[in-house]
Input
Amino acid sequence: MKQDSPAYRFSGQGLTCVRGERVVFSGLDFELAGGGALVLLGPNGSGKSSLLRLMAGLLRPAAGRMLWNGAPVDEDREAHGQRIHYVGHHDAVKPVLTVAENLLFWGRVHAFDQSVGAERAHRALDAFGLAHLAGMPGKLLSAGQKRRLNLARLLASPGPVWLLDEPTVALDRHSVRVLEALMAEHRAGGGMVVISTHLDVDLPGAEELHMDRFGAPARWAEGMWA
Amino acid sequence: MKQDSPAYRFSGQGLTCVRGERVVFSGLDFELAGGGALVLLGPNGSGKSSLLRLMAGLLRPAAGRMLWNGAPVDEDREAHGQRIHYVGHHDAVKPVLTVAENLLFWGRVHAFDQSVGAERAHRALDAFGLAHLAGMPGKLLSAGQKRRLNLARLLASPGPVWLLDEPTVALDRHSVRVLEALMAEHRAGGGMVVISTHLDVDLPGAEELHMDRFGAPARWAEGMWA
Amino acid sequence: MADFFHMGGYAFYVWASYAVTALVMVGLVVASLRGRRRTEAQLRLLQEAMPGGRRRRGRDGNEA
Amino acid sequence: MKSFLEIVHRDLRLALRQGSDSVMVVTFFVLTVVLFPFGLGPEANLLQRVSAGVLWVTALLASMLSLDRLFQADYEDGSLELLSLAPMPLGVVVLAKAAAHWLTTGLPLIVAAPLLAVLLHMDSAGFGALVAAMLLGTPSLSLIGAMGAALVLGARRGGVLLSLLILPLYIPVLIFGVGAVDAAIHGFDPVPQLMVLGGLLLGALPLAPWATAAGLRQALE
Amino acid sequence: MKSFLEIVHRDLRLALRQGSDSVMVVTFFVLTVVLFPFGLGPEANLLQRVSAGVLWVTALLASMLSLDRLFQADYEDGSLELLSLAPMPLGVVVLAKAAAHWLTTGLPLIVAAPLLAVLLHMDSAGFGALVAAMLLGTPSLSLIGAMGAALVLGARRGGVLLSLLILPLYIPVLIFGVGAVDAAIHGFDPVPQLMVLGGLLLGALPLAPWATAAGLRQALE
Amino acid sequence: MHRFANPAQFLRLANVIQPWALAVTVALLALGLYFALFASPADYQQGETVRIMYVHVPSAWLALFIYTSMAVASGMALVWKHPLADIIAKASSPIGASFTFVCLLTGALWGKPMWGTWWEWDARLTAMLVLFFLYLGHMALLNAFDDATRGQRAAAVLALAGFVNVPIIKFSVDWWNTLHQPASVVKMGGPAIHSSMLLPLMLMAVGFTTFFVWLLLVRVRTELAAAKVRAMRMAQVHEAARPAGGAAEQRGTV
Ligand code: HEM
Ligand SMILES: Nc1ncnc2c1ncn2[C@@H]1O[C@H](COP(=O)(O)OP(=O)(O)OP(=O)(O)O)[C@@H](O)[C@H]1O
Ligand SMILES: Nc1ncnc2c1ncn2[C@@H]1O[C@H](COP(=O)(O)OP(=O)(O)OP(=O)(O)O)[C@@H](O)[C@H]1O
Ligand SMILES: [Mg+2]
Ligand SMILES: [Mg+2]
Output
């Protein structure tokens, strides 16, 4: 899990997010360096998921900009795609592909210029206690197993930024602990982690971002014309 | 939230559930009186959701029976439908209907012989902090807001039995507390609550049902021919 | 003999009918037997992997 | 009854708000019918002979196009579960949804049909029979289609599978629908064929909701 | 390029594992063609004249039906999000998915078409032109259909009626497809029509993936 | 009712029937082919093509018979939730589809010399084509779901709904006036066909039926094994669902 260049910097300045004619948050700044972690907190609808999608590049900011090592992120979306790992609410597990096939596909697509060996994928499965299910079709997995398979993508191909939207949903306590250990290891290797959660997740030294500070709850009609 | 007749009894005897081709649990009994609560506990796949669906009448038991005040439940499915409120994994929120329209529809369908006023629905929205979103289309809600809208159905029309399948998923802490208070009030009024969860939910005096005790993991082949 | 194969000028139609029928029937047999062999091989593999599975096998009378 | 209207009302509102479905169905209908003269050449005589058949086949296909989503959206977002738990027979829910489907797709087709008949140079003697036959026939299509839609609920390639299942069952409606129009055009009495269409509808009205409800129950298990 | 093949490979594998996708589309094709003799009556002469039109309309319908869910499964299970974040242009993803779709449905349709032509008593002079026209035309249908599928996905988020704009785009393919076959049947040279079909394909090849990608971005916002 | 629900009991019965069915099939088909091709006369109208009848008609009958038994099995599966009935229906439909296909193809091969056309949109022919689609739809529906039982239920409803087609095929020649031959064997007042033709026809028909029985038993056996494979896989996943931390960990989740 060692990152070759630990001197990453990922930051956003004055970010505003508008969804469905409504300003979700505005004037939000963040700053992350290699090894750093950010925990997004806030009540429902405060924009945690929105910020993560913004960081991933699935949404575009209505105002403000995001920089990677000082260069605007949207200049080269493909390079950004390769840097990040996004784990959203959906598990992207194909019911008819086996566990190993599911993982290998995402590994290959994500790291297209490097060869993702079956061996690396196997280690990723092993980390989440799925190795012995490698040949099982995805449809037979339980909710928690699917979630673990989705998280195994993080290890199957390298990517310095992990964007995790409520990753602990459906996980039992043991798996939560495994995830915590992996995040620590990732950060020790120079990676960074952004995570949203309603629960207690152990992330030593993580910065907290309270989303409700940037909210504009009353402005949903006017927001559009701001 | 006052129930007119607090002398309800809801019980199940020797329930067996078969899903797919597998016995999920067998020989399960439960007994609930007005004001009571039952917490379903157990690992992933132990059959918590299945038992709730059985209680709701979405699944039929392969063996055993359920009684309401001594009379078999499946004799009058419509009456049973009116007694229960089932909250499952899906939120049943239509993206193009507004929050108020979504709620009113379910209120009217559920309590078809009583008129569910807009006023009662409004109070239900208010209880979950959604009143200011009443005119917003469902597609703009965040995960937690949808879940709260789904829970608001509980208050929009009366029904003594609440069947809640992991209702706290996606809720922020404040909303969890609101839900706890509402459950207490419902029970005080003579209602009953059955809830499945992986988390700590505060339900004073609730009975616990450990689903893994009724599992039949080794009985795979015979189960089908039982 | 040649007469027999000639079928009064309708050789193609008659023999094609019998050929089609034979082909389909043989195809069915082959497909069914292969399917059975494959499934039973899978079952054996699984039963070997699963302790306790073997014990049950005899009672279900699976082998025949 | 109140719940029935409530569901019809909701489904109509959904259809209107998200648009597309009925507009798409009618567009498809118009487009295909307009296309035929290209395929056949513009001879009025030939067009006239195929007009009843073309109109009916196209109407069949058009109503089928919109069917595969009949229960799908409600199934996926959990509404169907709740509807099946509502204090009314599931058959009533089915009937309400089929009624809404017919109002948003069958009815517009019927309105469009006489216009298209003119385009195909259909003898005006057939217009009355055409509208009457469609009025009696398209509700059956919606009902039979609902049954198919319930069967394929949750299947992997719902759309195509659905058509595979219901097209064979549509054939009687097609035969008698075309028969009624052709009879009227050739100066015969179309009433016997219309009676058969009505009979089919009367048969489908209790049977299809029952079978559909059974299919939905299986899907929700 | 490697990722392109990777996606095509995955989609083919999905199609094969989920079983009989292509079989189903072909069956639908056959079934719909079978409907026409019911509607038009069994006269060989009449069937022969409509055969080219019927085959094309049906092929269009078969491809439309199977396309409308092209991105749906990936959208619902979150795969589409991840694919759009993959380090390659979204247009390439679209092209790969359209290619896989064509291989599993368009190609079998082309194989089945001559058989159905026999059922409809088409003049054998038209067979060559039919296959050639379908080879050039069905990829355009897949590309245009992919665009429609993307717009339908995005429509949930607003611009509903956009999906309607797609239907008329099919018309040129249909007109020239039918034209080529008819020309060959009547002893004319079908090459000009085939050239137009080729031109349409060349036009769709860069434009459709671009528009589709835009639609998908919209859907994912 | 549930006596044969136990697979052990069913398999014991199958073990007895299966070798006999195979032996009878081989004998009848050999004898039937001899009579059909050598020891029966050509028809005075149809000439040698009448020999097509000995495969065409048995496969048509078998196709109808299989669909009927499939519908019966489906009804039992729906009413009594009898798992064996589901399996029988599932094992039948590919066989039925194959024989429908044979009937269609041999019919076409007979039609070309007799009617001068491979295909005609005649009521019986079309209804037979619809039967073929019903078989295909049944097979497709069975395999269209991730959950096997869900597919079986849906397919059972379809099999029952599609049964209306069987009487249509049988009586289409009487209800509509068609090109196709009316019934000459199975009809009121006894068969109107010469015994020299009736004998090979009957030999082949019975032979086809025993062939079906034998094949059905093979396929049912396969399906039983497949159900067990699925169950064991499921059990394996279920076992694996408990994390490495052990059971104590799980209970702590509360
Ligand atoms: C594709 C074309 C054809 C199809 C789908 C077809 C279908 C059938 C079916 C379903 C039956 C069984 C009906 C029953 O059990 O009552 C049947 C019987 C029969 N067919 Fe055909 N047929 C075709 C062509 C022909 C042709 C061309 C001939 C001869 C000229 C023919 C001669 C017969 C005869 C003699 C019987 C036996 C009738 C009886 O004894 O009940 N068929 N066919
Ligand atoms: N697809 C969408 N289109 C338009 N607006 C949306 C969309 N999804 C969410 N919103 C709006 O954006 C706001 C922020 O939503 P978001 O999902 O980011 O919240 P969240 O902090 O993740 O909440 P939760 O804790 O419930 O997951 C919400 O108020 C919601 O109304
Ligand atoms: N639709 C279904 N069809 C067939 N089997 C199912 C279905 N849903 C669940 N099962 C099986 O039934 C068993 C019990 O599932 P259930 O959803 O009741 O578990 P649960 O206790 O709610 O688990 P979780 O904590 O993951 O929600 C599981 O082993 C699962 O494999
Ligand atoms: Mg969120
Ligand atoms: Mg559950």
